[in-house]
Amino acid sequence: MNLLSVLGVLSSAIFSGTSLLYVTLGETIHQRSGIVNLGLEGIMLVSAATGFAVTCISRNPYLGIFTAMITGGLMNMILGFLIITRRANQLASGLALMFFGFGLSALIGKPYVGTRINALPRISIPGLSNLPLLYTSLFKFDILIILVIPIAFLIWWLLFRTRWGLGLRAVGENATTAFASGRNPFVIRYQALFLGGMLAGLGAAHLSIAYTMNWTEYMTAGKGFIAVALVIFSKWHPLRAIIGALLFSGAVAFQLLLQSSGVQISPFLLDTIPYILTLLVLIAWGGTRKQTAPAGLGRIYQSVE
Amino acid sequence: MVIKANPITKSNQLFQKLLNHAARYILMILMVLLLFGIILLISGKDPIQSFKDIFISTLGSRYGFSEVIVAMTPILITALAVALPSRIGLINVGGEGQLYMGACLATWGALTFNTWPSWALIPLMILLGMIGGGLWAFIPGYLKSLGLANETITTLLLNSVAPKIVAFFVFGFWHSPMDTNKTPNFVPAARLPNFFNSRIDLSFFIAVVLLAIFWFVMRYTRWGLEMRAIGGNPHAAKRNGLPLNKYWITVMCLGGALAGLAGMAQVSGYYGVLLVNFSRGLGYMGFLISWLSFGDPIGILVTSFVVSIIVSGGNLLQLTRGIPFAVVNILLAFTLFVVLARPIIFAGKKK
Amino acid sequence: MSITTGAHSIPIVSMRGITKSFPNVLANDDINFDIFKSETHALLGENGAGKSTLMKILYGFYREDSGEILLRNKPISIKSPQDARYYQIGMVFQDFTQIPAFSVLENIALFLPDLQPVYKQKEVEERITEIAERYGLHVDPYAIVSKLSIGEQQKVEILKLLLSDAKLLILDEPTRVLAPHEVDALFEVLDNLRKDGYAIILITHKLKEVFACSDRITVLREGKVSGTMLRPEANEKILIRMMFSKKLPKLQKIQKIDHKTEDVPILKLTDIETHSERNAVSLKKINLEIFSGEIVGVAGVSGNGQKELGDVILGMDKSVAGEKLLFGKDFTNCAIGEIRRNGVGFIPENPLLMASTPFMTVLENMVLTNTGRYSQHGGFKIDWQAVKTDYQMTQEELGFTFPFYSIPKSLSGGNLQKMVIVREMTHDPRLLIALYITRGLDAQSTIAVHRALLKSRENRAGVLLISEGLEELFTLSDRLIVLFKGEIVDTFKPSETTMYKVGHLMTGAEVHNGDQG
Question: CA-to-CA distance for A83 and C509, rounded, in angstroms?
């Protein structure tokens, strides 16, 4: 293991962590409004497939990214209809959406498997140009990666410094109180779902269009669930989510490194490390979770009459 | 205050229930047919012809029907694995992982004790399967009882881990000389016996018995009452002295054991060998079925039957008409959407 | 207090012919109600008379079935709290509409109608401080609400209304959670507001308050208006006759049986401490004994540890220190089931949420605390016949009737309470813990319950009676303890003290010798 491989891990972590972070930010918004979205996996897949397909057809990655965002928002509207308007159980509805996403994404993406697309341009970080080519190529990032941290800050600002964010957090804590303040919890939750869905779509777009530049069935490999766990890990705070996403993708990258460097542990066991790590962190955090979770998380809001 | 009278007798309730049941399932089946037809139309295939094909291959022949039963058995058991914990409010999505671990442990038994006679080996493998699944479910159950983690998320994470563990064992220790993806074929003593000259094996009968037990326990026994109380209002149940933690752990493990049993049945009955990644989502399918039928035993029977026909249909259409199997996922998920959205027709039991 | 109402002859708000019914209940029956500027109008009535419902209609939480609402004689439509706030009507509920995890400032900002899309915390803070100084509502804007006392939380509620420009304030039983001197402070604030032109509607069932601060009084009884009058026209007799349909029989004086001092106490708590999260109170150094054949009353303003005390005895909360002996044996870390099986009955404060499973039948609910007793063949069957027989017997004794096959969700609050009482008292508990046992009950049921408690006492049971009604406590208890901020501040016999002194102890204030009883 040398500097190059360590940097390689870091670079890989940043690349794969970006899509994870976008999704986590989206889920943070959901959970702050009181919704646990287990359908993220399906939403991501459909967004990724649609974005990829559009990119193939139009040869324009930006259009693909935009389409993926809209798709994510729209997919979440299905969830919204079920859990907000029809007051169905959040967890079951999310999982139903996941299955739906499995099927729909396979259908959409099938014709485009293996197609080459125009990549998003990657920009190198200024100041690194003196280093040998190998190093700089590790740190050439596309626009979505560069934007992810500013966007995290934006989400923080949105939640804690604006009237809309105040109302959203109120809905997540106690929807009845939010209603008493003249707000409409139904509308706010739909808005949260749409915005969060767009972020999830953005994360998915990064995965298929910018990072792997490919489409395969089930390519999100559980990232949708990891995001849900990461939101809890980051105590529902957008800025801490950055750390969480980095940690998880770092773990994935690290164990891949172990695999390739000939360490004598079965690759299958190494593959499990990130998930077990997430589980352990969740457990460790679990005791304090009750104090910081939005009080109305998972509750169905019934209007008074 | 003026209080209006509202008499509710026991027989009234029962009749209402039956009516609701029947209406619900008939409507659901009709809706599935309609949806399927629409999807077929959109894909440019003739729905009537496709339906005919499916009918002939599934219900039209003795063998076809038996194949439906074969496909139905594992998902019936995994549905039970979800339905039981759901009665006390636990959402067990870990059927997939529990399935794998059950299959794993049962396979170990099959390979290690391959000299044993069938009447000893099979029960041992059943036991091992249940232990494997039960242990895998114990972790989320225990964590829940400690208040540390939500069982939905933990079971989902563990689902990702289980197949890798199975792969580890198969690749590392158990694989057959010719193919690293699977174990050698099980000895005949390790295979579940078949019936009716078909692939229907003992697991089907086990499944039906389990279903009956589930129904009886929930309805008549003390534990069923206590479970329903816990599911209905956990806080009050705790105050009333019911041992919540005990139930959470026990029922979660039982659910896992059931899924593990399904896993064992797959490798011992259906395949006769442990194949890496052998489950095409059996655990998740069980989840869908349990939710489509609100965890009701008869509903599970009917729904798993219908789902099995749909899956067979999907397989057939993929082979003969090039429609991707993914269509089945869309169909089932959409059906669940409709059920969850609870239009008035489906309204009735709210668990 | 001032006698005259505002000089304006047009009421600021009028409600005409308001009728509202819920399943099983006709809450408001053709009610007429007016409120003027610079007036405090008391809305008086017993529990369940319809006062809360009427005001919730005014505030837009419910919509009336028929009738109309007029603003300065012009008909308006209030379809939601947003509408009500638009018409400058504000309401302080019994359960505050606050978010415990937010700060005072965020809670108030949430309700500001003119909050900027992007707001500066400093600006909001200044506005809060300005109004707070003016009317005497002092509180730290950046404090997290869950950490405030209930009196302070109430101040936040009022600030919310004032800052959102409400001109008509509706207060729903505001003094329920306050101790005597906090009540005085509240009335002073209300007086300041009234002088400044605000209209105030005070929902209450306490006569003392009505006399202390209202200008006009409207009495509701069973959903109808029983009468409206100016304060000078009213006296206790008239109001009581208007509130109740028949005269209340007086409780009999009870014979106190002396217990032998060598008896082992049924319950003995030694230095019990608990640790509560958020804004709940932690118990400290609780030393308590309950002997058989006595009723120990617990006085204290709600929220001072009553719930925690009941919960730690039941086993719902674990104590972090101290010892709990039941019938002489150590039960300190025992499970609830074990404690119940040893003869402990528990009547919680919220029967729907805390004691019943909403969608199982009443009969099934009855069995829940005693599944072991009624299970047969090792649990495979339940002896429903025995269940019915046992509970029917208690029903008859108490004079309660409620159907066995309905579900708790559809029962009224009072009937639900009766169901829980029947369940808990049927098996002759040796220790009965009762929290607010007569809440939601009408007068006759209350008397039946009191008799049942006395009967338990005769049967040598020990009773821990936690209640908000000082009269109830004084009449029934052999001994009284006062809970304040999680500690027992004093113990004495009812005959040795006065209600006023107990009230003072309830807020932790010292009692001076010159105080009147």
Answer: 50
| Contact criterion met (CB below 8 Å) for A11 and A228 | no
pLDDT at A304: 39
Element (H, E) at C110: helix C104-111
- Touching subunits for chain C (3+ Cβ pairs under 8 A): A, B
Residues in chain B: 351
- Say whether residue B347 is in contact with chain A using an 8 A CB cutoff: no
- Co-location of C356 and C284 in the same domain: no
Disruptive mutation site among C368, C388, C435, C441 for chain B (greatest number of B CBs within 10 Å): C368
How many Å apart are CA C57 and CA C78, to the nearest integer? 8
| B171 vs A contacts (CB less than 8 Å) | 266, 268
Same-domain check for residues C156 and C232: yes
A16-42, pLDDT tens digit by residue?
A: 899 999 999 999 999 999 999 999 999
Residue C116 has pLDDT above 90, yes or no: no
C-alpha distances in angstroms, B193 versus B265, B268, C413? 11, 9, 59
The answer to whether residues C288 and C436 belong to one domain is yes
CA distance B1 to C418: 17
Q: Touching check for C375 and chain B: CB below 8 Å? A: yes
Nearest-CB residue to C380 (from B221, B233, B236): B221
Do C78 and C62 reside in the same domain of the chain?
A: yes
A162 and C278 within 8 Å at the Cβ level: the answer is: no
Residues C366 and C333 in one domain: no
CB–CB contact C63 A305 (8 Å): yes
Q: Do C380 and B220 touch (CB under 8 A)?
A: yes
Both C492 and C391 in one domain: the answer is: no
The verdict on residue A297 lying in a domain is no
Structural domains for chain B: 67-346 (1.10.3470)
How many domains are contained in chain A? 1
Of A200, A188, A242, whose CA–CA distance to A76 is shortest?
A: A200
ipTM (interface predicted TM): 0.83
Residue C97 to residue A177, Cβ atoms within 8 A:
yes
A282:B149 CB<8 A: yes
pTM above 0.80, yes or no: no
**Average pLDDT of the residues of chain C:** 83
Task: Measure the CA–CA gap between C12 and C301, rounded to whole angstroms.
Answer: 35
* Contact residues, B window 156-175, toward A, CB-based 8 Å cutoff: 156-158, 160-161, 164-165, 167-168, 171-172
Give the mean pLDDT of C98-115: 90
The angle, 0 to 180 degrees and rounded to 10, between the axes of the packed helices A223-233 and A185-205 is 120
Q: Does the residue A161 lie in any domain?
A: yes
- Residue A31 sits in which domain range? 3-113+142-292
B280 is written with which tokens? 């095409």
The residue ranges of chain B whose pLDDT is under 50 are 1-7, 346-351
Q: Which residue of C has its CA nearest to A163?
A: C117
Residue among C333, C346, C357, C363 with most chain B CBs within 10 A, to mutate: C357
pLDDT in tens, A210-260: 888 888 887 888 888 889 888 888 888 999 999 989 988 888 888 878 877
| Residues C201 and C56 occupy one common structural domain | yes
CATH number of domain containing C228: 3.40.50.300
Window 324-343 of B: residues touching A by CB (8 A cutoff) are: 324, 326-334, 336-337, 340-342
Write out the residue range of the structural domain in which residue C320 sits. 265-343+428-510
Name the least confident of A128-132, C57-61, C388-392.
Answer: A128-132
Residue A119 lies in a domain: no
**Is residue C340 within 8 Å of residue B241, measured between CB atoms?**
yes
**β C344-347/C431-435 pair status:** parallel
Question: Of C396, C411, C426, which residue sits at a domain end?
Answer: C426
C117 with C155, same domain? yes
pLDDT of residue B41: 80
| Chain B nearest C-alpha distance from A289 (Å) | 8
B-contacting residues in A 20-59 (Cβ below 8 Å): 38
Q: How many domains does chain C have?
A: 3
Interface of C with B in 403-442 (CB under 8 A): 403, 405-407, 410, 412
